[in-house]
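Changelog note: in this version the structure field was regenerated for every chain. One regenerated record is shown below for reference.
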Amino acid sequence: MAPTAKSLILDLLSTLGRRAAPVRALVSAAEVFGIAGNNVRVTLGRLLAEGLVERDERGLYGLGPGASAVSEQIRSWRRLEEGLRRWDGGWIGVHTGGLGRGDARQRRRRERALRLLGFRALAPGLELRPDNRVGGVAGARAQLARLGLESRAPVMRLGDLDAATEARARGLWDADALVAAYRASVRRLEASAERLAWLPRREAMVESFHVGGDAIRQLVLDPLLPEPIAPAAERRALVAAVRRYDALGRRVWAGWLGEDAARPEGSPAGVRGLAAAGEILRAAGGV
């Protein structure tokens, strides 16, 4: 699916970390995807008003505070395994039943936060995930709040579920489908990596953007399940494949960043994975 001006801008700015890019660089990249320069400029104005991007005194654009929490979550794909610990069988629960419907924007933010951290609904008003992330309940509570969950939502540790509820909890995720998706993505990355060597540069930019972005989106939205529920080796294989592909993507996109993107103190520029931030924002309910 072709990116919109909004998703492309957020994608590209997310690759720059704390660096910023001039309008001409964003327009140049957008043209590769058939997006008009005027569309980019109008969209930048809207994103600036929404706080999703910010402009410095030099007129360069970077991600704004409204997108920073999600962008940080996206960039963490490289360190997924570092954020996990051995599962002791406990669960983290979030009670959303007392939050009410609220406005549509807040509901989207709530749903996005829960989805980004791999929660699933065990019962109406009760979201659940295994307590296998570093930081435990306190870490999950803080991360959910940064991502948009209301601070009054109770976040708690659950344990000693009865056998039927335990089985139902473990069945909230389709482990076989996860494994099949990991393997399919690895095959797609490997096939694309072979093509990038001979594709014209503009076509390689488009393909690496889509293929790399889709794989990173998959990792960012992965529930990061512990071994008793789903095998971790297949997920690790995908992370390794994305790292290899990311190195190719950096080379494909190096011209755009090296020529046009602002670099503090002349330090080398490099793509940080083509994270498809805009696609994740849309898929997870918007900003």
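Spot check on this record: The mean pLDDT is 84. Residues 90-158 form one domain.
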